[in-house]
Specification:
- The protein has about 140 residues and is mainly alpha-helical.
- The chain is built from three helices and two strands.
- Strand 1 and strand 2 form a beta hairpin.
- The longest helix is centred in the N-terminal third of the chain and has 23 residues.
Length: about 140
Amino acid sequence: MNRAARPFDDSPPKIEQTYHWAVAATYDFPSDLLAGQEELHQVRAELSALLKRLPWSVEPLDGFSDDTGWRKIERPASPGWTEDQQAEVEKLRRREHELAVFVSGHRYWAAVSGSDRVAARSRLKHVHEDTDGGAAGHAKNSA
């Protein structure tokens, strides 16, 4: 029997795919909002690096090994953090909180509609990754 005459074909179906390239919206973020977001990134990176360098426990603790759970956990003895280290972590955490409140509560967000606010916030978080220098472009939403 001729393959073309068969009512059922075993070959995979041919699917036409249409790709829609949406132009990403651009936003004219105020300079103080951009600066606040950039400092927030910097503070978070600094805090993360500091926490990686510090001992695993704030207070001095003996080391331990536990292999009764679903994976083995081992920690060496921890000398704890010095008062200066604790103060530095507290200072960075306080600044991170201040900046997060500043960025999330900025007056700019009142001018952005609810459906665009999430996209705009996400865009602001990644502005520093742009190779073209930031959030330049036409204003879809402006304050």
